[in-house]
Amino acid sequence: MKESGFNINYSLFLLLFALAGCSIEQGTVTSNIYHNLTAHYNGYFYAKEGVREVEKMILKSIDDDHSKILLLFPRLDTVKAKAYKKNTDEIIKMASKSIQYHPNSRWVNHNYVMVGLARLYSCDFQNAILTFKYVNTKSQNLPLRHTALLNLVRTFTEMGDYDRAEEAIHFLEKEKLLTKTNQKRLYLEKANYYQVRNDYDNLVNNLSKADSLLTRQDRKGRIYFIVGQVYQKLGFDAEAYNFYKKCLATNPDYEIDFYARLNMAQVAQLASSKDVRLVRTQFAKLLKDTKNAEFKDKIYFELGEFEKKQNNLSNALKDYKLAAHAGKNKRVQGMSYLRMGQINFDSLKKYKPAKLYYDSAVAALPKDFENLEGVIKRQNILGEFVKYTETVSLNDSLLALSELDTATIRHRFDSLAKKNQKAIVSKKKKKRTESQVDSSTPSSLLSGNTNEDTNTGDWYF
Predict the structure, then answer these.
(1) DSSP-based three-state secondary structure for 215
(2) Taking Cα atoms as reference points, which of 338, 312, 311 lies closest to residue 321?
(3) Is residue 360 assigned to a domain?
(4) Cβ-contact 130, 146 below 8 angstroms
(5) Helix, strand, coil distribution of the chain in percent, nearest 5
(6) Mean pLDDT of the chain
(7) Residue at 337 is within a domain
(8) Residue range(s) defining the domain that contains residue 305
């Protein structure tokens, strides 16, 4: 036992002696091992974990609008950056200490990358650029230099410096020795760049190239969903359907899963009336699922879109009306009123109700709604037109009345009063009848058997 104790003490003595010689300046084998281990496990490791935590916080801050093509990467802004400022400051502190105390370790430039990412996520773009450029020029590690360049692409894209972003992309495209990870990142960074530029062809092209390199950690389901959305927007329904189906196969987050199923109904190939009934059956299932309670307004809206696509305008109007009153989502409300206004204006030529629906749409739609100016312009035109037609109608009526004798005028007013009274009674009776019907079931689903054998319906969902 004494000999064992002696060996332990002797080993500790040798270790302390060796570490005593591990000054910053020395380049001995023992010193290099010490600085490499300490720089990696005390500095770089914790800084990298900090970066991952910040990235999770950024992802959680995304407020997705599924009526638009989802963002591949969340946009960075100074307001959101305040929420994780302490985290980014700590990352810079840990990585900087590691660089300061272990300047000869092989992890110095890795720590600089962590500093650069912390600055990027803090929206300190100029200092992030300087940091990544430093790594690209000083590091002897080629994959790390490529990583720094990829981070430069992201930084330039975020700050809207598209010329320099494109220069960095072209440089990386010429590099022959990209690792699989960096090659995947290049495709994704290019896709993000093209999405910001609204270049949908190149967005889809680069996401398709990245497909074989993607892992679950890359949020494959979201990427497939985005590709499906682009194809749907461009009118390629069959391709959109296939990518929504691929999205579901990845078992994505519930919201992505829900909207993928909803969008599949819009792009499904309908060869017969039976196919139409099957899609309606799937909508009915979505409405009955208690997990979708908060999404009912969106389901009704999409059902309205489906009925409109089938030219069932009466059903579409009823479903849009249900959508407008089923939830508190202002965007869905506004879009529902807008659709009702468009149908009354374009198809039914009923300008007075169209004007009222446009008024409601403008009041509900958010300020960033696509082509809001065009919606407001039509609202104003309709307002002037309805005012003009009402004036003309009133003048015509007065002119016609002026040519009648007193007895005829009195008879017409009596008839009009009786007609209005009958309309009021009829309206009250209709309202009582409707209150007895489950208002949660859209009109297009009341007729037909929604319990139809749904095995064939699996083709859609």
Answers:
(1) coil
(2) 338
(3) yes
(4) no
(5) 80, 0, 20
(6) 84
(7) yes
(8) 299-398
